Amino acid sequence: MRSRRDNFYSPISLLIFQKNPESRRYFHNENLITLVSNLIVAGLETTSTVLRWGLLLMMKYPDIQKNVQREIERVIGQRQPQIEDRKQMPYTDAVIHEIQRFGNIVPAVSPLATTQGIVFRGFFPSKMCKWTVHDVVYDTLINQIDCFCVKNCARVPKYRCQGTHVIPLLGSVLKDKNYFEKPDEFYPEHFLNSQGHFVKNEAFLPFSAGKRRCTGEILAKAELFLFFTGLLQNFSFQAPPDTEVNITPVFGFTNTPMSHKICAVLRHND
Ligand code: HEM
């Protein structure tokens, strides 16, 4: 049976399917190559960019870096970090969440298409262009509505809404001042309560949400924790002498830090 997920394909897969519609029914070299390259692009670039942001932000905020290192010393010591350690390390967990929030690594997800016309928040699509993409992200991703118009709605009658392209902007959620006290600052306390315990925030959506959310989220979170703690356990990161740490992002499909140099100082000399 065709699942609702089948409504969305990557552009490369669509080209393959257009050439040979039957080819979506079985595995062959072309779709295998697409699948593997999707996994590499989706899994490598994203995780390594978060880690690059992490090291840059630790250079920028040495006190936060020291706090993480103290927690590593207290919970892990000299042994290899394990994923179970995360439960006892709320501060480090909060810092990693804040790196992802502040870095806004995947600012927009790839376009989706509506499957039918709908009434959105009690309005017909012809009124929808009054809303911000931000509203749309919340209602589609959090409330699982998968069909709406964001563009030129006034000219698209309700029954024509099917197939309207929609690009949810995750950055607008990650910087929402209703959910984050200091949205434009690097502030790990966004994910900590007054007792220093880790607190979830429903607007933390760097992996997107809904049917097309990141399938690698659990793996990515484990990788980020193990690499980040492993690096800070062994090194302190600082800017080379006489250089300023610049945290201006380079905008693209992923938001990356600008090219920069890092001094990694072995911690045994701390
Ligand atoms: C910190 C790291 C990561 C971030 C921030 C991230 C973020 C995202 C986001 C926002 C999407 C939705 C993209 C869209 O709809 O255009 C996505 C999709 C996806 N991600 Fe990740 N990702 C990360 C790591 C990974 C890893 C490690 C893997 C697997 C090895 C992975 C595999 C995928 C796949 C296969 C999709 C497509 C899912 C679908 O279309 O149904 N991601 N990711």
UniProtKB/TrEMBL annotation:
Keyword match Iron: yes
InterPro entries membership: Cyt_P450, Cyt_P450_E_grp-I, Cyt_P450_sf, Cytochrome_P450_fam2
Names of the cofactor(s): heme
Pfam families: p450 (PF00067)
Entry keyword set: Iron, Metal-binding
UniProt keyword Iron present: yes
Source organism superkingdom: Eukaryota
UniProt family annotation: Belongs to the cytochrome P450 family.
Protein name: Cytochrome P450
Organism, as annotated: Ranitomeya imitator (mimic poison frog)
